[in-house]
Amino acid sequence: MEVGSENMDVPVTVELDGAVDLDDAVIVALGCNDKGAWRDCREALEAALARFRSEGIDVVMRSSWWRSAAWPDPEDPPFTNGVVIVRTAHDPHALMAALGRIEDVFGRRRSRPNAPRTLDLDLIAYGRLSGDLDGLILPHPRAADRKFVMGPLAEIAPDWTDPGGGGRAADLARSARVGADAHCAG
Fold first, then answer.
1. How far, in Å, CA of 144 to CA of 125, rounded?
2. Secondary structure of 125-181 in the HEC alphabet?
3. Would you say residue 1 has pLDDT above 90?
4. Ramachandran sector of residue 102 (left: φ over 0; alpha: ψ -120 to 50; beta: rest)
5. pTM here?
6. Distance from C-alpha of 59 to C-alpha of 108, rounded to nearest angstrom
7. What CA–CA distance (Å, rounded) separates 35 from 178?
8. Could you give the CA distance from residue 178 to residue 149 in angstroms, rounded to a whole number?
């Protein structure tokens, strides 16, 4: 399946929705360090966001794009990352399946762990759900220690608290050890 180019140059814009209840927030992290068919990773991520709606996922808040060295191998190309809060009728497993379909359309290949990728979509949290949901662990078990996730999340929802550990996004962003070089790139 090929990604249409009709939305590639049009960034997804959303109005920040003050009515978002952080206890119900569905949070998705996006990342890219292999531009694939796009001009750069930022363009690839914008195209991915444009595809969300066709999968029944509406973006209601979004962060800026952040940059960081690749982890765990800083010799790999650097990452562009961001976080969105979405609304969807999908349950967590159906949402993961939809995110996987988007990754597939964007050429995501899983050749080896942490290999460069055209698109990485992670479900960080689904409301206050916590624990192992038939193989899907929520909140994402490593998100709280990743500055390239918590930094962008703190930008849009600093008071969101991790259902697994209780820390606020703003505090977790300050204490995150993985991707400590992550910074807002606009």
1. 11
2. EECCCCEEECCEEECCCCHHHEHHHHHHHHHHCCCCECCCCCCEHHHHHHHCCECCC
3. no
4. alpha
5. 0.89
6. 21
7. 22
8. 10
